[in-house]
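Molecular record:
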Amino acid sequence: MQILVDADACPVKEEVYRVALRREVPVKVVSNMRLRVPEHSLVERVVVSDAFNAADDWIAEAADARTVVITGDILLADRCLKAGATVIGHNGKPFTGASIGSAIATRAIMADLRAGGDVVGGPAPFAKADRSRFLQALDEALVRLERR
């Protein structure tokens, strides 16, 4: 088992470390710049090139059925789901085969609206409840993978 973190703009890295260390699951923190990570044998920093989608490509290639991917990127979530991974958003809501299609469609509609000059709101601000939901979702995902 492993946890892959799409580390750019990830607000729950500390929570990932806490759960991973408690459950003794390796974590790879993937970004295109050097980020501070805990000095621990289970936590690995992976720095990729600054090429467009380099971190996403690395994560998608490393993901499999024994992987939990943490990301807010809908298109990366789709790629990881296709590889068999469990994918959790920063707010604790899982991306699933049943939900990813509508998430991609909504993303495309919002992009079209922005391109047309419409002012549209972004996602809701990250809240304490999101952090709590994330911790629970990650713990549950790891339990499910352990049982397989």
The radius of gyration is 15 Å.
